[in-house]
Amino acid sequence: MATHGAVVDHVLVEENLHARTIILNRAHRLNALSYQMVSRLHEVYTAREKDPEVKLVILRGKGKAFCVGGDVSEYFYRITEGHWKLGAKILENVITLMYKVATLGKPQVSILNGMVMGAGCGISIHGRFRVVTEKTVFAMPEASIGVIPDVGASYFLSRLPGFFGEYIGLTGARLDGTEMLACGLATHFVPSIKLSLLDEALNKVNTSDPVVISKVIDEFSEKPPLKEGSAYHRLDIIDRCFSQKTVENVISALVIWRHTTSLKQPVLLHILNFLNSRITHSVLLLLVEME
Questions:
Q1: Using alpha carbons only, what angle is made at residue 189 by residues 186 and 191, rounded to the nearest 5 degrees?
Q2: What is the pLDDT of residues 207-252, one digit of tens each?
Q3: Which of 19, 56, 127, 221 is the most buried (most CB within 10 A)?
Q4: Which residues lie below 8 Å from residue 275, measured CB to CB, with a gap of 6+?
């Protein structure tokens, strides 16, 4: 059964035994979170937390994206029209929604089959299980528009191996599903062709035991290798350069590396050009926030 939220069809809830599937259904906007969607998700999570019949929450997006983040155009329009207090309220609602996801008393399985960025990362990465596929594209692209990654990103990025989180946060680098699995942003990799089978199995779960749920997902999981050109293969260089205390020193370390090695690393050279062209106050603050 599906119930409709404050915005018709933009947030759906399917009930099946002890599982509840939350569907972001705004495919024409790549499931970007509007103010109404965030408000509706608050209601949905509060209701599921209180419902003793609910043992498991499944979160997915409709179409080719899981969720590309907040609807920045909507927020910008409201603020430029003079409704800056509403803009602040939207941000408050988004952050408290991330807190609800992180503290949910029932395991959440997020199916990240497509693009997941910004606030889409916040409503999924803070949950217990994150399932990626060969179609997954992850990014925290805030640095490219001159703002600091929010939605609790400094929490989960700072817990990645070495200084890979600093690299992601400062550059807005995109990761595929195998890279997310390798660095710990994802818990499982399931080929998209098996998602319907996984969904069927999860809907039969009648426990909140994360061990049991993990075993259910394991039945459909694979561990594909990283692509040859993955930046994760050069974690040694990333650690050396992104362990610096300031963005200026990160850039200096990258310049020194470029002039002292014969290795050709197009990804890291692109990073150097990116940082040189997009140093903003927000980017400078990110390293401080992640310490």
A1: 145
A2: 999 999 999 999 999 999 999 989 899 899 899 989 998 888 888 8
A3: 56
A4: 170, 171, 247, 250, 251, 254, 283
Measured CA to CA, the distance from residue 192 to residue 194 in angstroms comes to: 5
Please state the pTM of the whole predicted model.
Answer: 0.89
pLDDT digits (tens, 9 = 90+) for 104-116: 999 999 999 999 9
Is 176 within 8 Å of 137 (Cβ atoms)?
yes
Q: Edge-to-edge strand order for the sheet containing 175-176?
A: 65-67, 115-117, 137-139, 175-176
d(C-alpha 90, C-alpha 151), whole Å: 12
> If DSSP codes are grouped into helix, strand and coil, which group holds residue 203?
coil
Sign of CA dihedral 99, 169, 62, 184: negative
- What is the total residue count of the chain? 291
Cα 120 from Cα 11, distance rounded (Å): 14
- Tokens, residue 65: 């994206």
Nearest to 274 by CA among 175, 157, 146: 146
